[in-house]
Amino acid sequence: MTLVLAGLGLVFSGGALAALAKGNAGRLISTITTLASFLLLLPPIYSVLTGGETRQMVLQWSEPAGMVRFVIDPLAAFFMFIIALGGWLSAFYSMDYMRAYREDAQGLSAYYFFLHLLIASMLVLVIVQNAFVFLVAWELMSLASFFLVSFENGKEEVRKAGLYYLVAMQAGAAFLIAAFAFMSFKAGSMDFARFSEVFHQDAGLSLWMFLLFFVGFGAKAGFFPLHTWLPLAHPAAPSPVSAILSGVMIKTGIYGLLRILLLMGPPEKGLAMMVFLVSLVSGLFGVMNAIAQRDIKKLLAYSSIENIGIIGMGIGLGMLGQAYGQPGLTVLGFSGALLHVFNHFTFKSVLFYGAGVVYARVHTRNIEDLGGLIRFMPWTATLFLIASLAISGLPALNGFVGEFALYYGMATGLLSASPGVILLSLVGIAGLAFIGVMAVLCFTNVFGVSFLGVNRRPFAHAPGEASGWMLLPMGLLSVLIVLIGLYPPITFPFLQQVVGSLAGEAAPALRTELGVLYAPVVRAIGLFALILLGLFLLRSWMLRNKRIAVFKTWDCGYQAPGSRFQYTASSFAAPFLSLTRAVLPVTRRLLRPQGLFPEDASFESRPRDLADVVLFSPLLGLLRKFFGLFTWIQSGKTQRYILYGLVFLLLVIIWIVGGG
Amino acid sequence: MTDLLIVFIGTSMLYVFAASRIEAYIKTLSLQGLLFFLLVLADIDELNDVNFFFLLFETLVIKALVIPYFLLRVIRKNEIGREVEPYLSQFYSLLIASMVFIAGFGMAFWSLEIAAGIKPLYFGVSISLIVSSLLLIVIRKRIITHILIYMLLENGIFLLSLSVANEMPVMVNVGILLDLFVGIYLLVIFFNKIHAMFDGSHIDVLTELRD
Amino acid sequence: MNTALLLVPVLSALVLLPVRRKVLTRVLLIGNAAFYLLYALVPVLGRPWPAPFFLLNGYFSLDDIGFYFLLILSLVFAASALYSLTYFKEHGLDSRQESIYGAAMLLFLAAMTGAILSAHLALLWVFVEATTLTSAVLIYFERKKTSLEATWKYIYICSVGIALAFVGIIVLSVGSKALGSLFFADLYTYAPQINPFWLKIAFAFILVGFGTKIGIAPMHAWLPDAHSEAPSPVSALLSGTLLNTALLALVRIYEIMTRAGLSSFARFLLLLTGFLSILVSAAFMLRLVNYKRMLAYSSIENMGIILLGIGAGGGGIFAALLHSAAHSLSKASLFLTSGNILHLHHSKEIKDVRGLLKTDPRTGWVWLISVLAISGFPPFPAFMSKFLLIKAFFEAGLSGYVVPLFLLLVIILAGMGGAAFDMAFGQPPVPSGPPVKQAALRYLPQAALLLVLLLVGVHLPAKVLDLLQQAALFLR
Amino acid sequence: MMEGLIVFVLIGFAPFLFVGIINRVKAIWAGRRGAPLLQSLYDFVKLMRKGQVVSGTTSFVFRIGPTVYLGGVLLAALLTPVPGAGAVMGFAGDFLLFAYVLGLGKFFLILSAMDTGSSFEGMGASREATFSTIVEPAFFILIGSLVLLTGHLSFEGIFQTLNAISGYTVLVSSLSVLCLFLMLLTEGARVPVDDPNTHLELTMIHEVMVLDTSGPDLAFIQYASALKMVVVATLMAHLLVPPDLPAWASTGLYLALLAATAGAVGAVESLIARLRMSHVPQFIFLMTALAWTVFASVLFFSQGDF
After folding, report:
1. Which of A57, A413, A603, C19 could bond to A70 as cystine, CB 3.0-4.6 Å?
2. Residue B134 belongs to some domain of the structure
3. What's residue D1's pLDDT?
């Protein structure tokens, strides 16, 4: 525990120091402190994850917090690892990335202060067992991330995004505050342990509470339709921040859900189904929108929604297992969810770092303006490719590992007795498959268009390869991606305790079960590796001392092909989008060519978010209308002002005389 | 005797509704002050001497003489003649005022029934005074008129307090009087400034600040 | 010592008016502030605060809740007094103006203290009215057309309102004729004997009357004008202390209602007005152009929240008291900072102010942090109080109110946050050179207030907690 | 040992034969004699011997693409059980890996097409990706319903128990076969989805993606596509081969069915015209519809009591 406290202190003080330091010192301090705290946190995390006893510390704080328990149980440890690692990597990446902003000394100080505050608050919130402190940490997290998102606040749209983000977070937090306030009232204490007693006392309560918590945490995690802040906030933030937001912070919403589940015990069947279906919809919706995007970071943001959906499906599956008493489902569901939590952290971070490199070198986020980058930044491109493969859930990389558990879980769900589960499982399988192929389409598109072919617009200057500061985090994570992908079992020892704590009685079998499940997969993947190796050898042997002529691309006889001839991302996605038009509202502006010699003709299409179009914009419109009704109040006329009071008085008196 | 005085006070209010010359209002004010003085002299007996004399002083000196004179000087200085056309025409406002007045009598009888230990007529009339002055505030447009009506309102409240005859401690009375006095004083000062700064002392010039 | 609370400011004002010396003004302002601060803080910092005392055969007394509000008053007044010094310099006032300003401030202070100390209903009324009169002078202090208009509305509407409150007092004395006394002590003890009908009528009048001073809807309409047109340090006082003082007055009456067993009636009215206030401020928050008016509307909102807390009862009262402190300090800091902003940009329009963090980082950060503090972000106490308020709602079985309340609060955050962040962030309208650095006194008071808030918010000191609970006990 | 040998022989020759049969059927239908059955094998060998012409814009992705594609298909083939011989590798959940390695191959095929920066190949890639978004879910629904029906989570298990259950499953099997046949046409880029011997780039899907590929890479791709068809055809055949035959018989029957499938493809190719590109999705969607029908009937069957 002392190590943990030391780590926390280090992160926080590191932020303060980095904020105070001049010049490059700040960036260095931040990198070092985050690394140190990561290393400090490792031993306890490791021991707890591998079955060591859970560390606990009790603190008597002032009202209304009261007794505050800090507990590192497997669940907490699991998320701590992600937070600490992600925090350090982002700080490390910032070393070079943030150098571009070094004129803005004040901004940088704020950046580092809030970056560290974000990490620290997330660490606190996963280990604290006290509702009030949890909320405080939660709000601090939102606040810190808000300041990070609005780092480039000189830009109008960044400010708008930041505000939208903050407000959305507060709206979500409102549900949490309400839920926790109610629980603390019921339990007469802020301590989670008491909460769980209350939950177990009456089930009806836990039903409603779970709904509240689901909305609150879902808004943070980005479940449809509460996701609308993601595609705004992520592009606005600097890339290392986007990485930490998408890779780490939204997972705190997942953590919250799991924590509540842990407190609540087996959920209602309806809840499990709801979670499962909402997640499925989020997954489909997220990736569909991702396909429609041109802004690479917006695209990644939507793909985060998709992956949160996949994680949620895992959780829903686990809940189904609990609700229907099928340990197999529970274990596979939760394992899949947790695996995907970690995997998504790895490849999504790499992708955002990669997008950051592109932005830093080419100064655009619009993939239509890119192309052929692989020749300028081969390493970045390769790592980006690896992450793209992983996020599409393709085998031999870690994305497949998590999804395999989910698929397998749902397949076993098919064998269950109750039609409901069977139906959900099959819908889930089909949906997950659909998500998978759409991800393939999406990421072949983004990688192909931005890194392959030739650049569609002339670059201002030849973009260079990313610096080591940027490559190292990406490389490190990519190693994890490949490692887990090739040999999934290395994760099981760390998974066992967490899933065990979630799945309850189904725990002991877990590790062996997963082992049995994955052993043949490992063999098959090994075989695959051999096959590939063989084929490559064959190919190169065939091509040895053969002539390899380099020529221009086949142009179908057309003599002057330009780089603008390439297929654009929009046209690549067009056939698919024409199929899904119903759920992807797009605003199109077409200027038709006129006359024999058309002067100018243009066509632009901007994808819009369904939830925004059908839900939030109309609501806001209504709200504005409603508030518009009040404008007459402040008319400036003294007599009216007095009249209000008199009328009010009159009404009250009438009410009283009327026997109120 | 006392009833007569009180009815006079009430009717003086009606006169305010009827009249449109500012000076007339002020005269009414001082008249009311005088009537109060007589009322206190004639009817109030269960007070201790200090309060009694204080009341006499307040009614005669302050309400009947000082404040009216003060206000008179103001309107003379700013040569304000009559009230401009109010939001509600003289006729209707008079109509309403008389209704309020009658309602006041109704209140009086009602208070007689519930016998809450208050002097019925005082009560009824004072209520009608208060209500009608609030009505005036809402319908009249001249800023100076508002000051005067504020005084009338205070008079109504004064009568109400008499109706209860629940004696306030001296220092409280002093405080109340002080507030009243300073209030009027400030109102007048600001009125003068408004008169100087804005064109016209019409209440609607004061609608710069709005959302 | 306690008598001094009232006498010192009055006397110093009386000295100040004839003797018009700049030095004297400043000395007396700071002196009084220091005296109050000392008086209020010493008990909190260790010694038990003085036992309830009576002076002028019981017309004044200082109970726990009174002491709590006195504490807030002295903190805010100190900040505002300090800031006033730079205000003098900024506007280059001559000795006469300074002395008038100083005297008015001190009388204002005395009036509020009187209102807090009054143990007699009518006396309380007298002092509340006195606050109106004394503050009116300050609101008009900058002698602009708009400030004159604001002052007129303020003084006239409040006077009429207060007059209604007096009607209420008389009606109450009708109801309590048998009792024949308007001392709170007696009213509390014999509350059950007061005729409920008259009591209700009286409460209605007093709610409207004092409500006008508190600035709760629908009697709030004057507030944005007055608070936005007054000089910034005065706005800070108006928003940070005057509203509280009027609130305390209402609370004292409300206590009669509860003791008379009419709490459900009173609670309904409080909740109603509270919600109306929040609704109104939310309605205007989204369409404001003037940042001082924005702060004023936020005051309306916070008063509404406090009323909700009192109306909810139970833990809500604790929450309300805590929130009143949170609001006063952060709002004072905001209004003082708005003075800095006005000095930098010479405009009260939100759209004219951009990039504070670049033009004057200190002002920018103080502004940002204060906004966060008042929007109820941890680690500031407003978060605590909101949480406890919601909890109290559940305790009181008012769960239905929680959702609309949160909706409105989020909207208000959207409006206020949007404006405030636009002002702090962004590019300065005129490409300014190196960051400006104003006089230290233009940051220190706010910083001090925020520091206090931070300390309270992070770890509520046992002493303060104790004081709060004692004060909350006043309303059982 | 024997099984393994069979499988390897199959993987080695069946694709060439399969394509040969298709072309032969088409030729006969068109009244020609047609190329020798193993023509595509000769082409394969020839291409393997050739050098390469690569576009200047391409990167290493273009070079590894075809190989990974072939690798994926090969692994899929090894996961596919052959009647009477079984699969080289079979395990619970193997169908997931099966689908996903095919996906991996497709991913690289698409990328290597885009790597050339040619608008035609981009177009083909886009179509390939779009159509597979319809095929994939349908395939999973189909296998899912078979899992539900048989209670087994591996190809082997499914096919072992499938036909044994009852005569009722004939319905399911035949529907599934039809479904897989559509998959074969789509994945194999045959008429009516795509026309392997069209000459207009704008109307191509699969062929246009490999315009710039040459030499061994082209050989790999062609072989892989053929093998893919064989693999799907194997699954189809497996649905029809009764499980309780002796090994040699089932294998023989299987080979016959394989030939028949090829013939069917050829027949379709000769009879039906290629669909308009905009109508292709609807056609492929038939597969999804069939899959759902299968599921519905299976669900009804397995929950027979309601």
Report:
1. A57
2. yes
3. 58
